[in-house]
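Annotators were shown the component list below and the corresponding predicted structure, then asked to write short factual statements about the assembly.
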Amino acid sequence: MTATTPKFIPARRTEVEPARVAAALQQIAEKIGQDRVLTGDAGEFRDPFQPAEWDAFSTAGVVQPDSVEDVQAIVRIAAQHGVPIWAQGQGRNNGYGGAAPRLSGGITVNFRRMNRVLKIDEELGYALIEPGVSFQDMYDAIESSGANLMVSVPDLGWGSLGGNSQDNGLTYLPYGRDFQAVCGIEAVTADGGLLRTGMGAMDGNESWNLYKRSLGPTIEPLFMQGNFGITTKLGLWLMPKPEAITHVHVDVRRDEDLVPLVDTLRRLRLDGTIDGVPCILNTLLIASTIAKRSHWYDGDPALPIPDRQIDAIADRIDVGRWHLRFALYGDRNVLALQLAKAEKAFRLIPGSRIRSTTTGADEWAALSDPSDRVYAGVPNLDWKDMGGWYGGDRGGHMSFAPVAPLTGRKVYELQRWMRDGFERSGIDHTADLIVVNARSLVSVAGIQFDIDDEPATAAAYLAMQNLVREAGKIGYGEYRAHLQFMDLAQEQYGFGDHAYRRFVEKIKDAVDPRGIINPGRHGIWPGNLR
Amino acid sequence: MTATTPKFIPARRTEVEPARVAAALQQIAEKIGQDRVLTGDAGEFRDPFQPAEWDAFSTAGVVQPDSVEDVQAIVRIAAQHGVPIWAQGQGRNNGYGGAAPRLSGGITVNFRRMNRVLKIDEELGYALIEPGVSFQDMYDAIESSGANLMVSVPDLGWGSLGGNSQDNGLTYLPYGRDFQAVCGIEAVTADGGLLRTGMGAMDGNESWNLYKRSLGPTIEPLFMQGNFGITTKLGLWLMPKPEAITHVHVDVRRDEDLVPLVDTLRRLRLDGTIDGVPCILNTLLIASTIAKRSHWYDGDPALPIPDRQIDAIADRIDVGRWHLRFALYGDRNVLALQLAKAEKAFRLIPGSRIRSTTTGADEWAALSDPSDRVYAGVPNLDWKDMGGWYGGDRGGHMSFAPVAPLTGRKVYELQRWMRDGFERSGIDHTADLIVVNARSLVSVAGIQFDIDDEPATAAAYLAMQNLVREAGKIGYGEYRAHLQFMDLAQEQYGFGDHAYRRFVEKIKDAVDPRGIINPGRHGIWPGNLR
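Structure shown to annotators:
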């Protein structure tokens, strides 16, 4: 808690008549079954990290379709009643609002029942899946099929591939690079019709999930962070399992060693020695994956942990101030050369330490380090509690996540700036730099708070608000925004008098004239709600 | 010439009042200068392979802007007069209509004057360019800057990067994979405003040309084969020059050896041994790059060359019935391992021959084989005359180019089917299979004809029409269409009662309500012309 208790009242935006929503829910229940319609207590279909008394972003009811036809029926009924719907996969958008909708009072479409893997093609290395398939589901389906394939996964394996990919969610294996895994989607449009992207726009075309473009404009990326349809099927590229994986961990001792660490990584990433999505974590991020703050530090929770104590925590964990993790994939003879090259390059950073292990497929599921398991495509939940830094059982976090050029100087400047912003609000700076390609990274920082401490939570929200706004002024924009800050984050993209937003709003009004699909997602509202 | 002379009259579609166009051209000349407005004889701004007497796809005037402000002025004037414009880069869309517009009687915007390389960033490996920059311009700019970078190029280096990439044009180096090279565009919208995609939507955001997505829906791929704006700047990823390149050529003797050739390539492509965009050429395609048909065969031009003569031509050139070309990029020690693995795999095909050479950067510009130069990123025009298979000086061709799954069986079946279709029309089957990623290829076949032989040209057009229609019935769609066949090619994408086209038409009407930008491109017409 800070000395003066900050005020933060999130805007509860509801512009739906409850009677219309109730009528729509009733009609949906008649169509798809009462047991697939959940009303009353939102239960888990809310933001798990929001104080209950705020009551922002709340759903009027959750419907769980079982088929494409169910989704079409839901959309048609919602359109008929003019009721907004909020589609999600598993509802694990934690850190960005969880299972809650942007606009309160509408209907949530949750895909936990549509979690079938429809096809795994080993020869061409892809799957066709329903939107609720989780990373764990996909992994299990591959393993039980015996196909020599692997799926690119994020740190937590409980989310859906559909939901994650459509929020531009990051995954770490080579196919996570530039969000490449998805190829070909089927979506229900706002009129209840069915659309397929790319070659799927032709009946019987077997290249639907194999080729990334269309004849005519390519529309598939519109569905990523968009609100122009509800995805009901996704093609997903799967990588053949390599002969071996070399897991690499590099630690550097001083905060400013981030500069050569990033520059070395960029050169190895650009020249193809390293593929996939490496990740750079700071000491406190790693500490948060192991235990709560109070385990590491007994100082005032309202004051950030000072540098020398962070050094001490690093020593206790035996990591650096910055820790780089990545993996190499391929034949053992090539891996040995790539590893030697990478080791030679990172050793030029004074005080650096490089550790590596090389493993074959039969070892991956049993790897002890959760990071190593993630880079081996084995979903897990080991880091599930990393958000619980402050307070008792109920720790929460929000992610502030700007994109930055992959140069040591820019990345380090940004970290200094972010840490300063966090610490001015009395919040420790945990950093997770996700290197999405060879030229840029997403700098994810978890703003952590104790959910049961309302003033501390409010302070965290205020800190986030300031960070989004101030980052925009110096040219840094979020890759993905929390529900509460979607409008503000989008507002920062002001080039050409907000030409991007105005262009997208025109599309929104054209393809969803009643404004029923995910209104407000990432700051894009339909005409009737602008 | 076939025995019965076929009739083919291309539809000349003109729905613009000449007086309005003249007024617009006059106003544009006043704004950007009379010397930048070309009227009268279309000269080179037409389809170079179309018989002049057909007079389809003809422009009323060509304007050549010199700045973004010029483009904005042109669009505003065109909008004011309701005059359609057709934007292009260099105007080298040969095989698909060349510099001609889809709709006759409008204004062509040609970017040959906007061919400046605005920035080359060696550290982050990218350039920012104007839309008229040709591959040759880009190569020259890199070389004169001294930056250790290379650009992914197609077979002919005269086209623009802007035009080529926005037609989903294929290039062969690693960054050609899945059309990955472009990152971040600036476009003039139909109202004359200026839009930037991705992180460029934020003023001062340095990740514009580094990160592939947006906050909110990703709209950049809408501008590829689209007609929603006119691109005025492009970010372009450039690959660091590797230590060496290994150029590999694999020949197989029999037509049916294509099956194991494709399957072997797919496995090596999927497991990462081979990156980039390999290419498989048949004997006649290679013959066409060397000399005219009459050099190789003295039989009736109206009858296709029989198999045993194709074998004889293969022997004369010393290639196989199918010839695979690709390159490996990296450190010499890794290249040696990758080459050994590839050689071992291809040798399993009985009768196959594998040749390779490994070269360093100082050797690339002087490589004698045009294919090797292309894979080394050195633009050239060596294959410029490959379209002149039949007739005298004025050979023409159109490309029929469906996408296919990368399995030996499917690719071979498609080649048999295409050859059959060509030969029934009396046309030799030249094949160029461009392996755009590890899962699919674009099967480009040049339908060649003698421009001075009008009945033969008409027969070629009829053959193309049949191929596009019949391919659609068996699930194969074109990746890119010739002006004459854009509507027909798009018509084949009928899933969900043409849900894709209807969705895109809604976008078209929303962002370009007067329908002035590239109407009819790839079958997408504005409301007033549907």
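Statements collected:
1. The longest strand of chain B covers residues 440-450.
2. The two ends of chain B are 36 Å apart (CA to CA).
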